[in-house]
Amino acid sequence: MYLELFKLRELPFRLSPDPQFLYLSKAHARAKAYMESTVWFTDGFVVITGEIGCGKTTLIETFLGELQKDVVVAQINQTQVSSIEFLQSLLVQFGFKPFRMRKAQLLATLNDFLVEQHNAGRKIVLVVDEAQNLSQRVLEELRLLSGIETTKDKVLRIILAGQPELNAKLDAPELEQLAQRVRLRFHLPALSSQDMRAYILHRLEVAGSHGREIFAPDTFELIYRYTGGVPRLINTLCDTAMLAASNQERDTVGVEELRAAIDELQWPEYVSRTGTRLVRLRADAPAGGGAPASSRQGDAPLARILLASGGHTIGEHALHPGRLIIGRTAANDLQIDSRFVSRHHCQIITTAQSSVIEDLNSTNGIFVHSKRVRRHNLNDGDVVTLGQHELLYVDERIHHRGTDDRHGTTSLLADHSLEAGS
């Protein structure tokens, strides 16, 4: 292989999900944070979706590797099974031999085990990868399992990870009860061009490059054109390019070697293969995989939120169809750097008809009209309080106003803040 030529300790672009090579883009960091939240909250599923090769499995392996000893884990990857086979697979993960049990016995054994572990102070996490292959019956079985509880708590935490078809399956009318149990749903997008470059350099550094330039600067644009920022495709192309360079006894990869690798793989450009538009500048894009802000600049917003503190407006954010995550860290779409705001505090989901704000199990909660709420359909003029900050919601669907009216929103927010403090 090429390790000696490139002076590396190990292969940097293996396809196996090795946690030490995980590159946490903004989106990957948020998906990992959502998985971590299942350890502390049991009031619903967390669903992580992403295209093939986007890094879901590596993310799962990293998450599982960092869990504390008091967490009992079941990980299921074979999902083309019947409901009986699924229950058997789950019990096998917990150390049982359930293959001669009938369904009633399977359920009773599982129930007793979960309650016993809970009473012993342990947390139980079930991770299902490739969940898009689960049948409707198995998904319904999962919903029922999520309802197992003691007098105070539900005892099973569930993460479903899969391809985008999983979302369509969960949104089917016949699975409405299950969909209502989904607490967080996040789509993991492909890497931006900037993140792709950082991803490649990160993997090379972990493998022992010590900052040496192995890929020439002019190769990254070409890599992005042929991989679309999909980590698995990046790994395949970069590994093949390094092999091509080593065949020529060159210790750097240039455009020539990269072209040779593309020809060997017989790959067309990513856009022509998938029809997916590449986004090279994603600084303003939602980390949840929505359309980048640059693609929506010409679209009129459906609503706006004005952020204020102490009666003074300090920011404004346009709302387009999709999800806006609000929290303390930079991994959010809207960051509020305050100790009274949780890492991921709340989210606003906007559709053509309405906007809804939902608490993401924050410590200090969200308040509307001085009342703490978990979920609230936003109305024009609503003020939502988050710790020492307020959000004023302005519904542009009913506000086709002139400049004078728009100029008055700052004073409107100040008035609301004074009322809240009186």
Set down the secondary structure blueprint:
Blueprint: H1 3-6, H2 26-40, E1 45-50, H3 56-65, E2 71-76, H4 83-93, H5 103-119, E3 123-128, H6 136-146, E4 156-162, H7 165-170, H8 176-180, E5 182-188, H9 193-207, H10 220-227, H11 231-247, H12 255-265, H13 270-274, E6 303-309, E7 312-319, E8 322-327, E9 334-335, E10 346-350, E11 355-359, E12 366-368, E13 371-373, E14 375-377, E15 383-386, E16 389-395, H14 403-407, H15 409-421
Parallel strand pairs: 1-4, 1-5, 2-3, 3-4, 8-9
Antiparallel strand pairs: 6-7, 6-16, 8-10, 10-11, 11-14, 12-13, 12-15, 15-16
Helix pairs in contact: 4-5, 10-11, 11-12
Q: How would you portray this structure in words?
A:
The chain is of the alpha/beta class. It has 15 helices and 16 strands. A hairpin with a 2-residue loop joins β12 (366-368) and β13 (371-373). α4 packs parallel to α5, α10 packs across α11 (231-247) and α11 (231-247) packs across α12 (255-265). Mean pLDDT is 84; it is low at 279-298 and 400-422.
